[in-house]
Structure formats: structure tokens, C-alpha cells
Amino acid sequence: MGSYEEIFRSSVEDPAGFWLRAASDLDWHVAPTRALDESNPPFYKWFPDGELNVAHNALDRHVDAGHGERAALIYDSPVTGTTRTYTYAQLRDEVATFAGVLRDQGVGHGDRVVIYMPMVPEAAIAMLACARIGAIHSVVFGGFAAKELAVRIDDAAPTVMVSASCGIEGKRVIEYKPLLDKAIELATHKPARNVVLQRPQAEASMGADDVDWAAAVATATPADPVPVASTDPLYVLYTSGTTGKPKGVVRDCGGYATALAWSMPNIYDVGPGETIFTASDVGWVVGHSYIVYAPLLAGATTVLYEGKPVGTPDAGQFWRVVAEHGVKSLFTAPTAFRAIKKEDPDGEYTGQYDLSGLKYLFLAGERLDPETYRWAADLLGIPVIDHWWQTETGWPVAANPAGIELLDIKPGSPTRPMPGWDIEILDETGRPTETGVDGAIVAKLPLPPGAFPTLWNDEERYVNSYMKAFEGYYLTGDGGHLDEDGYVFVMGRTDDVINVAGHRLSTGGMEEVLASHADVAECAVIGVADTMKGQVPRGFVVLKAGVDGTAEGYEDRLRDDLVAMVRDQIGAVASLKDVAIVPALPKTRSGKVLRKTMRGIADGADEPVPSTIDDATVLDTLRSVLRRE
Ligand code: COA
Ligand code: AMP
């Protein structure tokens, strides 16, 4: 097979040959003869003349090969006390039937279906059912509020919505149906039908446009897989940009399936019949790629876990799942480990379970701090692999390719670039930085298969946000450096995106909410360091002239209002808890808010006063506001 170095080199020296070979592991209705259409940069197209069906590759292919009785998906839900295993044959049948339901509701090739669901197997079934009939799914994370869902409905313009009556968040039952109804009321686009899965924890009242999942499935005729162009969209996944308007990241079919199928054995070292447990949510890219598509494309078993790392009911649940289901690779976000460490600092729960089958812990979604790395590595005694990627990239940009060879681990680094990811570090002038010097992390175009070919309905934003800063390169939005051994170090975002408990959020979006309050003249939201969640948002507001911020109890009332507004309009997941009144925001002479300086002060750093500042005394006031707390 070759070493990492050889494999990486062949992927950049002969990308066409490398990826055509990888693509040949899939079933194609029409096999691609060409790897890449480069005629319209930066809009590259992988396998332009190929045709396939991703759901067929994820399910039918394995059943046809005689593996129908192998476990495909294990639903493990401590919050409902349920464990259910779907074999490949069963999952294929459930997906085919639900694909029939969607078809009966008028969904066809290229139509969109918005899925707003908790972590139940039906969420994965709905995604795969869309893929089966060539429809495009767009999953919206359950922690987003109705308004955020409405924005996505208007952008994706779905034919049908798929939802559930409720989700279970720790010990709370959250009714989804009222949120769905409110979102549809707020949206300009009205989907024709809503298919709703009734859950016994809170049954939803159904309206004229609502279709009961179970009743529809009972009468539907299964649908066969529809071959689609490799370049057709498989899904649109909205992610936070620097403004309140989310970006609809488009994923193609053939390139994505090829990259994921390559990544399973080579990065995660998981093959047919082996089990991966990705503790994330189907609403995030990690869930799309490594709960649903990649494990199934590889013929492996995936665990879909409805619960939290702690509190459902205890900090030993990950270990229970690993032991009960024979998990080989566990993948989650560092914040989950910080939560476990807080509850069970000595790792006592691990002693209660047989973890001998667990070979790797993969962590991504936010920076892995060396302390959490060491705690996890000492506790488990297995390789703890930090790897870096984004919604846009679809699969890891930098990782330790455990299935090829385990490279030396350097705490603080997600190791080396994966095939096709030609990473460079550039300074503001576009020149490569010296080894070890931070700059903008960029990837040379064309990007490998799996990465986003465009943004939904917004080619201009695709070019302006990602492809314009440095000609011929994709701007990742992350800053960092390469060391003398070619290891990547990702130090943090260079824009206004923050990562809260592994959830990607836009501070710009929160600022739009705060600014809409009647008393607020201007505001800034920044991400500040948090020992548990990595980062949390923090708001600063300047009051309109004439508003008396010193009045008895006013600041507390205002904070409560603003916190409630963000929760109501963006969602609980935004976790904005702190808002302070300040007399002014630090700005440059040209009026730009100095957010980086504010971040430094909030984090307690000895932040230098920027030469461009308009009024340096504003910083003293900010420091004293922060010291008061
Ligand atoms: N539906 C509805 N509400 C949700 C939700 C969902 N799917 N997910 C989260 N929320 C709510 C939470 O209940 C919480 O509400 P609260 O403020 O009323 O308590 C709020 O959103 C914030 O959630 P979260 O940031 O998840 O914090 P938490 O304190 O509930 O849990 C962790 C902390 C670390 C246990 C949790 O964040 C976690 O498991 N993180 C793993 C990260 C992960 O999976 N990342 C995905 C990318 S890999
Ligand atoms: P998302 O698109 O939600 O997957 O978030 C992507 C962002 O999360 C990246 O741009 C990084 O800022 C951050 N991120 C993800 N993985 C890592 C990692 N291993 N190390 C540092 N940052 C990470």
C-alpha cells in the first residue's frame, strides 16, 4: 500500500490517477472516465461523466454482496432506554420504503427535503431515502430555534419537511413540532407536506399538511435507487459564516462518496464488519460524514447515540457503548472529553467496562488542548488522534492516517495533510510564511473530492468568501502554521466564527440579534476562552443616548432580555449568557471594531494597544468592566 509520504505524494503529483483508483471501489452505474473537470475554476467537478447512487453504495451494494445480515446501524439511546440494531438488509428496506413515502409526497430528483430531527435512526433513514431517489437533503440541527430553521427553509425551498414530535435533551423533552410550525409560519417558502415521526415522549398534534411517519410507511411502496450524476448535489448543509445568513455548503455525490470510502480504512482504520461510534449529531458535518455515510459506504457498523457524554445518566456512557457494541474507533469533540473529565476526573467509570476492543480515539470539531489530549491518552492508553476539518471540506484535511501508519503524535497538532490537501501558510501579502510562523491556512486548488463544489444558490459568495483572498487557493478561515516536519498547527479562526462546545456559531449572527433591541445603539459579540466549552460568546452593548444604564436593576434586566432574544432567535445552542454594558466599543480610526483586542483582554492576555485605535481610553474602561466580574 505504501507509506503516508508515498500516498500523499502520489495524490498531489497525480490527483486524477489517485482518485480514479479510489473511485473504483464504489459501484458506478456509469463509471467515470475522467477524474476532474477543470474548465471553469474555481468551480471544479469531480468525476464529471460518472453516474452512481450513494444510497445504493451505502446499503444495497453490501446486501447484494451477501452481507445483508451484518449490523449496519446500532441505535443506542440511554435517554429512552432503547437499543436497536438494523442489519444492512433491514436498513436498506426501511430506507427504500421511506424513499417511497417521499416519492408519494411528490419529491423527485433534485428536490430538496429539510430534515429537522433529534438523534433517532429515522433521521439517518430520511437522509438515505433522499439519496436513494436523487433528492437533496438539508438537515438542520435540532438545537437551532424556529427562526434559524425558517431562514434555511427559505434558502433551500424544500418540497417536504421531515421532523419528529420531540427530542430528548438530557432529562428534558423538547417538543419539535411547535418549532417546526413556527418556522413554517415565519418562512416565505411553504413546503407542501411535513412528515412527522410521532414519539411517545410527547405526541404532536397534526395539521392538514402533516403526514404521520408510521401511517405513511405502512402503505408506501419501496423505491429503487435512482442513478444520478456524480456532480449532482447529495445534500446542502448550512453552516455559520461571519454574518447572520448561514452558508449552504453543497456536497456532490461521487466525489464525496469516493473521499469518505477512502477515509474509513485509511484514516479511521475501520473496515467491513468493524464498528465506529461517532458521538456527534446528524445536524453537523461530523454526523453526516461519520455517523451516516462513511461507515455505511465502508460496510462497517455505525452507532447512532441519543444522549450526552455526561448526565444521561452518568459519565460512563461512552464506555458502556464501546463495550456493549464492540467499538473499534470512537470519534467525538474534545469538549465531550472535558465534560467527562470534570465529572469523573480519575476515569473511574472506565474500570467498569471492557474497553479492550477500543483501538483509537479521534477528536475534532475544535482545537484539542494539550491538557485534554494528555488526560484522554493516559486514561485510555490508545492513540488519541486530533484531526482537523470543516463543514466545507467534508472530511479531514489534516489527520494521523491510522490505517496506513501511525505517525508520531505532537500534542497541539492534528498531524499531517491528507491526500489532495496541498496546505500552505500565507501572510497578508500572499507570501508563504517561514516554517513555524502563523498565517492564513490555505489549500491549493483544485480541492480533493468531498470538498464543497459551491454554495447553494450563491456562487458569488463561494468565490468571495473562500476563493478570492489568494488566487488559486481556498481560504480555510483558520490561522496557524506548519512545523519543520510538515505538521499542521491550527490556532483558531481568523474571522468572526466561534466554536462553542464543538458547535460552530457566528458572532455576527448574535450581534444582529442584540442590535435589534430598542435600547442598544451598537454592540459586539466575541468568543472568549472557556474551560469546558472551549469558547463561549460574550456580548458588549453600548446604549442609545437617553437610556439610563445605571438605573436600579436595569443592567440585569437588559442582560436577561438579550440572552432570551438570542436563545429565542438563534437557539439554546448559542449559549450566550453574558452581556455587559460599556460606554463605547474600541474601534480603529476608520470605525472598525477591534474584536481581536477585545478577545485578548477578555482572555486576560497582556494585549498590546493597536496603533490604529481611535481612543485608547476605551480599552481601560473595557478592562475595568471585565475586572468587575
Ligand atoms: N436540541 C435542542 N436543544 C439542544 C440540542 C438539541 N439537539 N443540543 C443542545 N441543546 C441545548 C442544550 O440543552 C443546552 O440548553 P440549556 O442552555 O438550556 O442547558 C444548550 O443547547 C447548550 O448545549 P451544549 O452546548 O451542548 O451544552 P450542554 O451543557 O448541554 O452540554 C456538552 C455540554 C459538552 C456535554 C455537550 O456540548 C456535548 O456533548 N458536546 C459534544 C460536542 C459535539 O457533539 N459536537 C459536534 C461536532 S463534533
Ligand atoms: P465545522 O465546520 O462546524 O466542522 O467547524 C470547523 C471549524 O472548527 C474549523 O474551521 C476550526 O476552526 C475548528 N476545528 C475543527 N477541528 C479542529 C481541530 N482538530 N483543531 C482546531 N480547530 C478545529
What's the CATH H-level homologous superfamily of the largest domain?
ANL, N-terminal domain
Radius of gyration: 24 Å
Share in helix: 25-40%
- Could you say what the CATH topology of the largest domain is called? Rossmann fold
The overall number of domains is 2
* Beta strands, count: 31
Determine the mean pLDDT. 96
How much of the residues is beta strand, in percent? 15-25%
Identify the strand order in the major beta sheet: 5-4-17-16-18-19-20
Name the CATH architecture of the largest domain: 3-Layer(aba) Sandwich
Q: Which ligands occur here?
A: coenzyme A, adenosine monophosphate
Per DSSP, the total helix count is 18
Shape, please?
Answer: globular
- The low-confidence parts are none
For the record, give the distance between the C-alpha atoms at the N and C termini, rounded to a whole number.
57 Å
Largest sheet: 7 strands, mixed
The CATH C-level class name of the largest domain: Alpha Beta
Helix-and-strand structural type: alpha/beta
